[in-house]
From TrEMBL:
<keyword id="KW-0067">ATP-binding</keyword>
<dbReference type="InterPro" id="IPR027417">
    <property type="entry name" value="P-loop_NTPase"/>
</dbReference>
<protein>
    <submittedName>
        <fullName>ABC transporter ATP-binding protein</fullName>
    </submittedName>
</protein>
<feature type="domain" description="ABC transporter">
    <location>
        <begin position="5"/>
        <end position="234"/>
    </location>
</feature>
<keyword id="KW-0547">Nucleotide-binding</keyword>
<dbReference type="InterPro" id="IPR003593">
    <property type="entry name" value="AAA+_ATPase"/>
</dbReference>
<dbReference type="InterPro" id="IPR050763">
    <property type="entry name" value="ABC_transporter_ATP-binding"/>
</dbReference>
<keyword id="KW-0813">Transport</keyword>
<dbReference type="GO" id="GO:0005524">
    <property type="term" value="F:ATP binding"/>
</dbReference>
<dbReference type="InterPro" id="IPR003439">
    <property type="entry name" value="ABC_transporter-like_ATP-bd"/>
</dbReference>
<dbReference type="Pfam" id="PF00005">
    <property type="entry name" value="ABC_tran"/>
</dbReference>
<dbReference type="InterPro" id="IPR017871">
    <property type="entry name" value="ABC_transporter-like_CS"/>
</dbReference>
Length: 309
């Protein structure tokens, strides 16, 4: 798949010596959804701001559709739509005029049909004559997306798009993002919500302390790094794990009714067969056996804490 955005050894340092970005390199494929995960201060917003031309890099390069963001800024920026984390809108302006104005800023001719299409897609058409101050927080975020889409960008950056939005609206936003992908828009989003990345991303990038720790297809990441657990539910509770089972590294949960065994799916042998045989030899009677995959959140925490160490 063609890379529509290419970031090469991008660095950003400040006068006090702080390094916000430390040699970030990343190719983003046309038509994909990339979720960028990282704790506060990891460098997510700095990376987006630098790609969008809001922040000047110390070194490195960024090309958008083949256009260098430094030497061909106007051409590169015209391909990008940005939805910032902060809601900054003119409170007394009407929704329709706000979105029309954004299109004009990029030198595009008025296109009422296009604006109507965007507002309808974002469930804003019925609010088009409302002043921004009359909208809920969720609707204001939709207006930000409409503004970013007004000039028909090929790439859309969403910086914490569902921050402060309730669960129902968050899922609506996920549907909107999925529809945008279907229309051919490449989407890069930063998020603190791990379930957001699991729900909609094709690839996941993890950034911490200005360094990109990894970028991986979501499913491959979970398959390669995610561990599985077997939960063995007993018919009768036990107060402690029998000594004969100590070698398996079990934990005892559920008021003494559940034995939890963690194993690596990539290991040559999982040890499951021996575990179940040893459980039977210990005189324990099974009621149920279930498996559970590690969540993306657990993988993320492991990566970040490992880097911090």
């Amino acid at each position: 798949m063609t890379a529509i955005l290419s970031i090469k050894d991008l660095r950003k340092s400040y006068a006090d010596g702080f390094e916000a970005l430390k040699g970030v390199s990343l190719d983003i494929r046309e038509g994909e959804i990339l979720a960028l995960l990282g704790p506060n201060g990891a460098g997510k917003t700095t990376l987006i701001s630098t790609v969008c031309g809001i922040t000047t890099p110390t070194s490195g390069s960024v090309t958008v559709g083949g256009h260098d963001t430094q030497t061909e800024y106007r051409a590169a920026r015209s391909m990008i739509g940005l939805v910032p984390q902060e809601i900054v809108l003119e409170p007394f302006e009407k929704v329709l005029n706000t979105v029309r104005f954004s299109r004009g800023l990029f030198g595009y001719r008025p296109d009422n049909a296009r604006i109507e299409q965007i507002l309808r897609k974002l469930s804003l058409w019925d609010k088009r004559k409302n002043a921004i101050k009359e909208l809920s927080g969720g609707m204001k975020r939709r207006v930000l997306i409409a503004k970013a889409l007004a000039h028909e960008p090929k790439i859309l950056f969403l910086d914490e798009p569902t921050a402060g939005v309730d669960v129902e609206l968050r899922k609506d936003m996920w549907d909107i993002v999925a529809e945008l992908k279907q229309s051919g828009v490449t989407i890069i989003l930063t998020t603190h919500y791990i379930e957001e990345a699991e729900a909609i991303a094709d690839r996941v990038g993890v950034i911490n302390r200005g360094e990109l720790l990894l970028v991986q297809d979501k499913d491959k990441l979970m398959a390669q790094m995610g561990q599985k657990q077997i939960e063995v539910t007993l018919t009768e509770p036990i107060s402690e794990i029998p000594a004969s089972l100590a070698q398996h590294g079990l934990t005892l949960n559920g008021n003494g009714l559940t034995l939890v065994y963690t194993y690596d799916t990539n290991a040559e042998r999982t040890g499951i067969t021996k575990l179940l045989n040893d459980v039977a030899q210990a005189g324990l009677v099974l009621r149920d056996v279930q498996t559970r995959q590690s969540s993306l959140e657990e993988i993320f925490v492991t990566l970040v804490s490992g880097d911090a160490a």
